[in-house]
Amino acid sequence: MDSSNTSNNTNNAVPADYIQGTILTLAVILGVLGNIPVIVSIGQQRRLLKNNHYYLILHLAICDLFFLLFFTPSIYSIFTANPSKTFLCRIWLPTHTMFFTAGANFLVLISLCRYRAIVHPLKPAVSGKALKALSTFVYVLAIICVVPQMLVLRFDEAFGCYEEWTMESLNITYTIFLTSVQYSIPVVFLSIMYFTICRKLLTHNNKLRLMNAQIGQGNTRRLTLFQRLTFRNAKTFYVSFIIVICFVVSACPAQ
C-alpha cells in the first residue's frame, strides 16, 4: 500500500468521485456482510478453533472486517471532497494499513498450513501454541510497519492528510519496505507454496488415473473412491489458483 496518503481539497465532489465512492461503498458492504457470518459462525463453534485452518480463517476474517471498516473515512472524503480530520489522519489511516498488512500475512500462514498438510501429510500439524505465536508475530509486525507512518503523518485544512518526511530517501525506503511486507513477499510466498501444492496434487492425480486404469470397471467401490479423490484434488487446485490471483489483482491497486 502506498505510504503517501493525500486528500482532495476541492469544494465539491465530481461525478467520477461519486462513481468511485459508490463502487467502494458496495465493496465495503459486501465485504462486511461476508466476513461477519464467518466470524460469528467460527466463534459460536469453539471446537473449530482447535482446527488450524479455521483458527487462521477467523483471524483473516477479523483483519478483513476491520480493514473495510477503517476504510470508510476515505469513502466519506471521496463523497464530500473534504479532507480527513486530524484524528482520522493519525489513527484511522495507519490502522487501516495495519489490518491490510496483517491480513496479507495471515494468507501466508494459511498457505503454509495447507502446504504442510498436502505436501507432507505424515508430518504432525503445527501445534496450537506455535500457531498462536505466529499469529501474534503477524499482528506485532503489522503494528511495527505502521509506526513510521504514524510519526510522519500531518494534517492541514488546505492539504488534508499528508506525510512529512525529513528526507525523501526515507520516504522511498519506507514505501519499498511496506510494499514488500504487505504485498511483494506474500505474493512470492503464496505463489511458491501453492505452486508446490498444485504440483503435488497433479502428481497424485496421475497416480490415481493409473490405478483407475488397472482396476478397470470391476471394482466399482474403489473406482468411485479414486474418482472422489481426483475431484477433491482438482477442487483444491482451482481454489489455490484463485486465492493467489484474487490477492494479486485486488491488492495491487493499493500499492
From TrEMBL:
GO cellular component terms attached to this protein's record: plasma membrane
Signal peptide range in chain numbering: none
Keyword line: Cell membrane, Membrane, Receptor, Transmembrane, Transmembrane helix
Domain of life: Eukaryota
InterPro entries: GPCR_Rhodpsn, GPCR_Rhodpsn_7TM
Topology in the lipid bilayer: Multi-pass membrane protein
Protein's GO biological process: cellular response to hormone stimulus
Main location: membrane
PROSITE patterns: G_PROTEIN_RECEP_F1_2
Gene Ontology MF, one: G protein-coupled receptor activity
Subcellular location: Cell membrane
Protein name per UniProt: Neuropeptide FF receptor 2-like
Organism listed in the record: Paramuricea clavata (Red gorgonian)
Taxonomy of the source species: Eukaryota, Metazoa, Cnidaria, Anthozoa, Octocorallia
